Every structure is written in C-alpha cells, then in structure tokens.
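Issue: copy button drops trailing tokens. Both records pasted manually instead:
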Amino acid sequence: MGKRIVLADPRGFCAGVDRAILTVQTILKASGGPRKDGLPPVYVRRQIVHNRHVVDDLAAQGAVFVQELSEVPDAAAAAGIPIVFSAHGVTPGVKAEAAARGMHVVDATCPLVSKVHREVLRFVREGYEIIYIGHRGHDEAVGVVGESPEHVHLIEHAADVESLDFRPDQPLVLLTQTTLSIDETAGTIAALKARFPWLKEPPSSDICYATSNRQAAVKLIAQQSDCVVIVGSANSSNSVRLMEVAQEALGDRGLAHRVDDAGEMDPTWFDGVDAVGVSSGASVPDELVAGVIEALRGRGFTEVSTVETIKENMHFVLPSELRRQPSRA
C-alpha cells in the first residue's frame, strides 16, 4: 500500500459549537447590513468557540468580540445591540452586569455546560460541597466555579487531592469540565474516592458525548497510524486533549501534533511515515481539515480511509432570545 491518511469520524463541530456559531450568524443575517448609527450588529463576549479561524471569520462579517462587557459602549446597550455569551458559559456576575446595564443578551452557552451549572446550584441547595475537576482559567471552569465559589473546589490533577480536607459527615459530590479526557480524569477520580470514599458522582458523566466520541475515534486511528495530526487551537481544551489521547495510543511508534491549520505542519513530521491519522477538535470547521488533507496529498499521502465509530445526530435549538429580534436604529 502507498502512503495513506486515516481520517477520524466523528470529528469537528459538535452540536453545542454549531449552535453557538449559528447564533452569531443568525444575528448577523437579521441585522440587514450596516446601522445608521455606526454601531455593530452584534457583540460577542470572549471567543464564541475556541478557534481563531471561526472568530476571525465572524469578525470579518461584522461581529465585534470583547473580553469584558465593560468594552461595550452604553450607546450599544441602549440601542439593544445583542451581546452573545460564548458556548463556554459565564458566571452569575457577568449575567448580573449585563442585566444592570439593560443589555440584550443572547446566551449561546452549550446546553451540556448549562447542565453542569444547574447541577452546581442543585447540589449546593442540598448541602453538598462540590469537587470540580477542570482547567484553572478555562472559560468553562471559570463560569461553573463562579456559580458558588465558596462551595466549588477546583482541582486539576490527582496530586491536588491532598490539598482538599473534608469531614466524613460533609456531603461531597464530583463534577467535571465537559471537555476533559475520560482517561485523564480516571486517576484523579480514583485518588478522590480513595481519600473521600463517600464522594458522590452525578447521575451521568459530565464529559460530553462529543468529547467522548472524538477521543474514541482518535484512539482507533492512532492504532493504524505512524503519526497523528489534530486540527484545533491551542486554547481549545478538547483539541489539546485529543492530541494527548492520540499520543498515548501511539506510544513509542510516533508523535501526535496539534495545528491550527495546514500552514503549521512541519514537513519533517512525516519523514519515514506511511500512515497519518487526522482528526479535529469540536470547534474546528471541516474546511481546515480539508486543508490538512490536501497538504498531506501533496506529500504523497494519496490514499484516504475513514474510521467511523458512531454516527452523531445530536442537535440543539437556537437560544430562545433569538425569537425576540432587537429593534434597529
């Protein structure tokens, strides 16, 4: 056989990412072009999803991205310009700030992330302390912890378990960031259960279906490849986890790499390689994967096969706020 590409399926956009991007696109389409007052058609707080190509594309269409709500002028709030919250969710403080300024909020938080927010509130009401496995500083983790900072204790690794101290009569429950690797959290969860045997787990795993599906597919393509390329941005937790899962499955046979696009690939990665596995994170447009495949074809990887693990049919409806169209100036 010649040099080949082993493509993972599922890969790329998940339902939550698709919903978030479509939210901004819907507002842009409904805006009807430039406003007379010079204000943009929509503001987006933080990156709508963690992919710079997606953000750049929406910005080129007229969306204005801000880090904080304070960057949105009062005139925009008064004019009812929509402010979209990203797929990763926000803290109650951000929602309160938007409400205090009378902003027209469209919340594009992934429904699976919103579920974890609701779980925090429910368990706090029931008297639990919450141990949350997540990445410190990640937008999703910041939002979840912000629901009840005094009762949500964030840890990243098994080594962090020693820093926790709870009485045996203190109800404890475990929650996790949705984009983590199942394998990555296994050791931490084992350490937690060893230290706190009474720790309760939520009824279903918080690691989302898309994260699990993409990791399962990547493991399979890595077993058939000499190296793996994951398309995704450096600040995309699920993309970085995919690279780590791929590397673990490759073992000593080869290396896994993460790139934003084909332009970041190093030709030396493919020296002596007969099969390259390719996948992408949940916030990555498929045209970026197509670009990687095209670049690999140019290096002699002309055969393409696909490994499909499961057919995804999840779909989330657009945020209810979009039913109330903002008035135009």
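Record 2 (pasted manually too):
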Amino acid sequence: MDRTAAGWLNGFIGVLIFSGSLPATRMAVMGFDPVFLTVARAAIAGLIALALLALFRERRPSLSDLPSLVIVAFGVVIGFPLLTALALTRVTSAHSIVFIGLLPLSTAIFGVIRGGERPHPAFWIFSCLGSALVAGFALSQGVTAAPLGDLLMLAAIIACGLGYAEGAKLSRRLGGWQVISWALVVSLPVMLALALVNLPPSFAVIAAPAWAGLAYVSLFSMLIGFFFWYRGLAQGGIAGVGQLQLLQPFFGLLLAATLLREQVSPIMLVVTIAIVGCVAGAKKFAR
C-alpha cells in the first residue's frame, strides 16, 4: 500500500472513532459538568499518554516544537472538547453532529495557513459546497432556537481545524501518536489540577451511561483516534484526507439514533448524504 492510500485508510479509521465523540459527550454531560468532563477526559488521556511515552522511551520534543504542541493542546485537548460539551447542554448530539460537516473546510484552511499545502482551486468548490449544505441545514432549523449552542459548535470547529492541521504538520517529524501524547502531557498538570478542583460532590448519583461516555471520550476520542488521524493527515495530506470528515456526520447520526434514541429527521439524512457526495470531488483535486 502506497503512502497516500495508507493515509486515507488511517484517516478513515480515525473518522470512525471520532464519530462516536459527540454522542458519547452527550451521554457524559447528562451526569457530569461540562468543565469537569473536559478536564477529566484530558487528565485521564494524559496519564495514559505519559505512561506510553515512558514505556516506549520516546525522545522528548525540541523546544522549537513546544509552540506547536501548545496549539494542538489548545485546539483538540481543551478547545474542541470544552466548546462541544457546553454546546451539548443546549442542543442535541444529532443537531451538533451536522456541524462536523464544516470541519473539512476548517482543516483545509488551516492546512494552507499552517501546513503550507496548496490544493487545486476546484478542491475549494467541493469543500465549500459541503460546508454550505451544512450551514444551510442549520439555518433551516432556525438558529434562534439555540443560538448559543450553534455559536459554541462553530467555535469548536475552528479550534479543532487548527489543532488538526498543526498536529498533522508536527506528525511529519514526531509521528502521529507521539504528537497527541506530548500535547496531552504538556497540558496534563493544568488539566489534572482542574479535574481535582472540579470534582462532582458525589459520584454515587452518576448513572452508567455518563460513565460510559466519559470512558469513550477519554480513551478513544482524546487519544486512540488521534493515533490514526494524525498519521493519516501526515501521510495523505491535510486538506485531502481532512475531507473524510464529511463522512463523520453520517456515522454520528446513526449512533445518535441508536444509542440515544434521538430523532433523526429526513432532512438531516438528506443533507448528510449530500455532503458525503462532496468528498469524492474534493479528493480528486486535493493536490
């Protein structure tokens, strides 16, 4: 398998794992405060990452890598988890998942700014078309119903796109799993301290689904998914492989309907299928 094909395969596995993030977060915020959930998932993943780095005796990043690791931590360790957790106290996971359709465009833009990539002009047509479909859906649902929730999701998408692109660029030197592990370790002291400060008054009242959600976002969304995702972006290109995120709403909607019994409207399915159709065109002109 050549490098580009391997990149798309790794990226696809990463998208499958990330597809469960918003439904799992929705489950978790039913029992945990959003701030505690954000810092707890980062602290748990950070402790595991620290153990892995020590076990495999990975070399430490250079001082010149530290700013990029801080950006990664800001985007995907703190920014996206916190903003989505706050948003999911106001909107359903099915509604928020559709906003994930904006992630490919956000990632591609930061891939140009931070990664130095230059996709074909036709690439932007397909990427913008998919994003426009998502934005049109949000408007058709009436953003006045939960304007703060939608704004929080948009902010999360921007932070996540930056973290994805920066991490992919750094993965070319450090490796995919090493980047997210070091970013988690960099933020670990603060996250661990905040988790202890924000402990719930009692764990006895927290139901099993909330614990399951916390476990998923800590192990898979915060750590394991990035092993595949950053490697895929580094191998196949940030802008191109990033378009696989257009598949994420489809998988996420299925999970929301199956696990949370949330209603998935026909228009949600139509929009999701339409934006999935954009990935083929974007892939063709990614480089």
